[in-house]
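Next comes a single protein record:
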Amino acid sequence: MLLQRLTEYGDRIAGDLPAEFYREKQIHWVLDITTDGGSAQLLNRKVSGRQRDQVLSMPVPYVQRSGTKVPAYLLVDTAEFVLGVPKKAKDGSVTDKDRDEALRRHDAYRDLALRWASSTTDDPAAQAAVTFFTTGRINVELPAEVEAKDTVAVMVGTRWLHQIGSAQHLWAEEVRARKGGAAERRGLCLVCGEHRALLATIPEPVKKGAIPTTGGSNEGQLISINAPAQGREGLTQLVNTPVCHQCGGRAMAVLNHLLASDRHRRRFRDDGVLLWWTKQPEPDTALAMFFDDRPEPADIENLIDSMNKAPSPTSAQRIQADAFYGLSLGLNNARLVVRDWIDVPLHDAKKNLAAWYTDHGVWDSWTGRTRYHPLWQLALSCGRWQGERYAPDSAPHGLEAELLHSALHHLRPPARALPLLLQRVHADHRVDSPRLALLRLLLNRSPDPQDHLMPQLDKDSTDPAYLCGRLFAVLEAVQGQALPDINTTLRDKYFSAAVGAPSITLRRLFTDSGAHFKRLRRDKPAAGHALEKRLLEIYSKVGDDLPGHLTDVQQGRFIIGYAHQRHDDMAQRQAAKERQQAAVPAQGTPAADTATV
């Protein structure tokens, strides 16, 4: 199914793909042959790291090759093949073995180039190549900076030889001959369903570095069975996975195309990558928004609204059937690991994304709107806080990919996310918007409806853990109003204790608040009265039933209740300040003390 979807997409974007068995590569040197084929010069196209915009890069013939007698590529290859430059040891010396191998590879390169040029009799550039390559081994002046691994392309006049149609055709035939095995097999291709010549091995791997990995980067094969223990009935290579040459080459070309696309690729910050595309030609904007690192809130709200509105029967009939495909890949040495494969109707994918945003949205009292966070930020909220920001690369390994899986499949987040998040909250006492959003997500996807919480303060909630969080927030506000210049707050000293064991901690803080209220009655009577009323209102709901210890889920509800109460207090203070400022022109002077708490 995966290979079928890749080849279907390849048929749709055929114009954007390179020629068959071609891959994008950087060109370091150009062998410029004169139009009569009598001579050539070597042009340097190497650039420094600061001149990346001047790199010469283009699709060139490519196929995976291995072994001791590796064959040549057609026309574009390393300097060892094109120019006979031998490999050097670390000390700069060249052994006789390396020198002989360079000459062998150079001869193989010339033979393949001549086979193409001799078969193309009607092209002046090909005839110039015939004249040049038949004179013997290439004899051009080699600059000292030419290395055996440098890529060299050949041109005649203003034409790149590897871009000529006959060269592309010959190279495709050459790859089929190499990858078809010693004895050609024909059979039913599992991808296209046609009876065709079958591959012995996949011709093109995934590019080195295309998939982030914590280990050493390497090229990766999607299908690789090279040991009897790995294959069914002890059979190796593609015997049990019949794929024709066209489908195998097209699928890998599409895979590399998606890996190079910024629009259809999401690289995880630690390990792995997600590729996505749709069945219809134009990708849906809602999907592009989801995979953006900083989506616009208005776009998210439009997505949620569109999913909540049921289409009329007439409009539903006009909706074209579309599909969403998602492929999550990792890399294990030289083999690709398919971690997740998604093939669902596009409407279902969008519905899952809308639910994802609905489940984690957090009310922002400053802007008066719900705030949404990208995946990477939710994962990083389980990392270490450094005073002004989260420490880079401190998110738990693999958490971002697990959250993405949860979003696309509308599943519960990984079980480890809640204890990891609570551990960080206890460590640095920070409850910000990303952490609150992740907590809401974790609780809203719990099978227990009691865990599902609103994005802002729920004054009707009777949940003891939620009320304990609200109570702690009010006690902190009481201290803040009574002692505005205090260095160590209640949150600094008692937050972790209150979250874990609220009964003992909150009763003590409730008793100690009497001294703060005494100061408030003297200095800020209106504020003290408002806070006392709020504190007694919450305490009366939970005072006789303060829980002794809280589970992880209950601790999450405590923290959300605490944050909701703080945000509501902040909104009330802002509203009171605005009312006070509006009353100044009418009264002449503001009131001395208002309940702005």
Summary: The two ends are 60 Å apart (CA to CA). Confidence is low (pLDDT under 50) at residues 315-319, 591-597. The CA atoms of residues 135 and 283 lie 53 Å apart.
